[in-house]
Amino acid sequence: MIEYYQRIEDDLEKIYARISDNVVQGFEEVERDSISAIIRKIRNAQLQKNTHIITDEEMRKIEEMCKRRNYWVHNCFLKFPLDDRIKKNTEVNTTQELINDFFEAEKIVEILMSKF
Q1: How far apart are alpha carbons 24 and 18 in whole angstroms?
Q2: 3-state secondary structure at position 38
Q3: Where are the alpha helices (DSSP H) in 20-86?
Q4: Whole-prediction pTM value?
C-alpha cells in the first residue's frame, strides 16, 4: 500500500508541474513538499488558472486518501495491540481498515493515471 501512496505522490507532483508555467520549476517547487502541501498547491493552481485536471470529487477522494495515508505511515502502530488478551478484535478491525484503504489507494492510482 505504501508503494501506491508513493506513486500517488509522484503523480501529483507531475500534475502540479504540468499545471505550472514552467514544468521544471514546477517539479522543483514540490519535490520536497509533503503530499498535503502538493494537494493544496494543485487546488490553488487549478483555481488560479481556471483549469480542472482533477475534478472536485477526485480532489475530495485524494484528500481523504491523504488522511488515511498519514495514518498508516505515521500512526498505525498505535492500533496494533501489544496485549494478547485484546489482540483478536483489534487486529481484525485494523486488518480490514488496511485492506479497505489499499483498494481506495488503488482506485486513486487509476484516476491519476487517466490524467496523463
Answers
A1: 9
A2: helix
A3: 23-30, 35-49, 56-70
A4: 0.79
